[in-house]
Amino acid sequence: MGDFNNILKPEEKLGGKPVLLQDFEEFQWSMEECGLRDLTQKGKMFTWCNQRVGIERIYAKLDRALVNGEWIHQYAKSIATVLIEGVSDHSPLEVQFQVQMQKRRTAFRFFNMWCLSTDFQRTVERSWAEKVEGTCMYQLCQKLKRLKHLLKQLNRIQFADIVEKANREEMQLEVMQQKLSLDPGDADFASFWEVEAKNDASWQWKQILKVRDQRKLGVVGSRWLASSNGKYTVKSGYAWFAGNETKFRDLQSIWSRMNVPKHSFIAWLAWKKRLWTKDRLTSMHMAVNDQRCLLCRLQPETIEHLFFQCTFAAVVLEKLVQWLGCRKIAASEARWRMQILNMWKGQKINRRLLWAVIAACTYHLWEERNRRLFQQLERSPEQITLLIKDEMRGRFLYCHKRKNRPAAKINL
Ligand SMILES: [Zn+2]
Fold it and tell me: pTM (2 decimals)?
């Protein structure tokens, strides 16, 4: 408790220079790190004033009482009051422990569950070992009395929510039993490895079962195929799920310095199939009126279609490929990926440059799609190609200047 000479939130200051994130983020971070939080506060909001007049006057909350979880358990109703500052520029704080005064006395009872706590044995041993002077009976009484308080404390810290927890679990059990009595063959209660996803099951549950099925493919009898000794390990499991997608290293080229950051981001989402195309929206049960691609208005909109198969995208890609002096790009996505990875080989073209153009193309196709969807504005493939070329020229010059490195050996 005291003067921390810093605020926690912008609204804790009035007047003076505007508050910046760096002014308080360190304080916020250290509070989080130490598991501390503000004690409930009563009275004035600001605890400090620079005592100036007019526009030079600044108010701020610089003094506070910080508490941890244990404190809140023990003194749930404690409160800090900001008092009148008097002659100082800071206001004094007063903390009240209301809970202790209002507590009703109850008889002490021992709970067997305390023995489950790892702290139990230690607490009893330590307390019992402490010396008490007096007759044997007095010693025993004093030791029991002392222990009683410590065990109550242990109960408050470790078993405070036990009643709530028990009630919750009892309710869950009741629901499951009811469900089971209505439908004894319910698949939810069959073994995890045999359960089939129902049509109305949640998306998350379907995903979990999908991963389970992939894992099942790796097991023959009781042998796990992905490791040499047939035993499942996390490492071999990871390799199994990662599959042949070792192209991840190449994916990093998307983040190269030559790329415009916003292009990188959209290209990365497209590569990971995380853009909200119409087919994805539909699969998440969101209403989509027209499934068709907004660029060609012919085929359904999917990631593969939008960036690889769409006739509109094909024109843009074709023009860019010609500009770069590369071979033609394949239409199918799988082949396209392979070709992207191979096409820079043996060609007089910088690999990072190629990725920058691909990322830009992805970004602008997606942008065009959104312009058509949300603003009803259209551009031709030629306009988009020109835009990308201009942007790329600017970017290459910028990177070239910054690093003083020869740019790609192509005629821009
Ligand atoms: Zn299309």
Answer: 0.41
